[in-house]
Amino acid sequence: MKASRSTNFELRMLEKAPHLRTHQWVYQLLRRNLLCGRISPGHALTIRGLAQMLQVSPMPVREALHRLASEGAVEVKDNRRVIVPMMTAEKFNELCDLRILLETHAAGTALPHIKASDITELERIDGQIDAAVEAGQVEEISLTNHDFHRRLYSTNPHQISVPLIESLWLQLGPFSRIAISKLEKTYLVDRHVEAIAALRKGNADDLCRAIEADIRDGIASVKSLDGIYDVFKGVA
Amino acid sequence: MKASRSTNFELRMLEKAPHLRTHQWVYQLLRRNLLCGRISPGHALTIRGLAQMLQVSPMPVREALHRLASEGAVEVKDNRRVIVPMMTAEKFNELCDLRILLETHAAGTALPHIKASDITELERIDGQIDAAVEAGQVEEISLTNHDFHRRLYSTNPHQISVPLIESLWLQLGPFSRIAISKLEKTYLVDRHVEAIAALRKGNADDLCRAIEADIRDGIASVKSLDGIYDVFKGVA
DNA sequence: GTTCGAACATTGTGATCACATTAGCGGCGT
DNA sequence: ACGCCGCTAATGTGATCACAATGTTCGAAC
């Protein structure tokens, strides 16, 4: 019965650029859907089910899922079933600590390479974030927020930490979507303007402080939600 | 002609545990060979060539290579050819900085979970390292040294950073093998005894200092080698 | 002798097929 | 009525095949 492959979530589609390999397209599509929280923790993903949803053969889906597993975005259980990992308080705290550790370092090493054009680009992205916040588009907020951070860190041409940081985002993604959707809109202020001001001054300490505060604000918001982790307790 | 697939390196084989999937076995085998430097930077790896060497179909090799690529251990060029990445001075410094950042953090969070049995286990591994140093087995030194660090950090049951750290090791592996093999034996002293002493005292600061010193010693050794990066410059 | 081009070999990719393992379920026995 | 066992559907895995793209080599034209 094909109905068993039916899923209770809608994938945000992504047009396939012609030069992209199919498995890369599937990977990016699943990645974006995980980052913006379309696929919830505890949800099981099957190769054949996704292949049917995306109208491709199981092969590229296999590769995409295995890559996501190696990045910690999904978890391969002993049964070989693939699920989106659960979140615990300890895991969440550790992920946030690592974000602060790596992202302040990345921002510090990027600072010497910042050009004026980079700052205007970052301001443009920050405007997109504000627009998404204003419109209440939760998924857009996540995606553009990541764009902001990635663009900042990637200014350093020798940056190595971005893939590591993205792995952390992927592990936090499915969970933080739930958290953000439970927050009041007013809590969603970010520290990007402080970060941009620090970039203009070329002040590394201010920049790290802004990045750390930006991350910590999200933590504080989530921690204010009592029993947030229980949402995913009994699902597996 | 099959000879074109011939390789100028010997793979360190690894018996396949029966419960392991073939692609996991291939992955672990390639991973160990990269970590201990059997495969040099600039070397090209082909799916069919490896499949023939290992007597398996191209499929599990594909998955293993893609996973290694997502961890930064190998690099997929625009030609779709897979090579072991080159090393540059900037990249090396950045990788070492990240190692210090992540590994001191990992050690600090592991410290509260250390039990007496963990310390004896670490001492056992350290003995293996000394034996390998004494015997001049360069590859064994790398592998057991990683075992020591991994074992220490993994004592924390909620450890998230180990996969990130292993990614750094993988990127450093092929290069440091060359570096180590050019060093005098006497340079290869480590700071593991200091780390174990700090564990016994439960002193986090001492532990972090020992770990950082352990990593920095390797950096200093490599930097003392003039023109070490040039070895791999013209290969690609 | 040099250079351009066409034929060939090799490689990565994706689809399809075959098989082992596992989960889900219904029936049988106690 | 409860629990154990076997059957069936479904899933992940690995092999083989077909194809497109890339790299290489050999030969012809200037």
What does this structure look like?
- 2 copies of one chain form a homodimer.
- Chain A has 236 residues and is mostly helical.
- Chain A has 2 domains: 2-83, Winged helix-like DNA-binding domain superfamily/Winged helix DNA-binding domain (Arc Repressor Mutant, subunit A, Orthogonal Bundle), CATH 1.10.10; 89-231, GntR ligand-binding domain-like (Four Helix Bundle (Hemerythrin (Met), subunit A), Up-down Bundle), CATH 1.20.120.530.
- Helices cover 61% and strands 3% of the residues of chain A.
- A 3-stranded antiparallel beta sheet of chain A has the order 1-3-2.
- The two termini of chain A are 23 Å apart.
- Residues 1-6 and 232-236 of chain A have low confidence and may be disordered.
- The A-B interface holds A 23, 62-63, 66-67, 70-72, 88, 90-91, 94-95, 97-98, 101-102, 105, 109, 158-161, 163-164, 167, 171 and B 23, 62-63, 66-67, 70-72, 88, 90-91, 94-95, 97-98, 101-102, 105, 109, 158-161, 163-164, 167, 171.
- Chain B binds a DNA duplex (30 and 30 nucleotides) through residues 1, 4-5, 21-23, 46-49, 56-60, 62-63, 79-82.
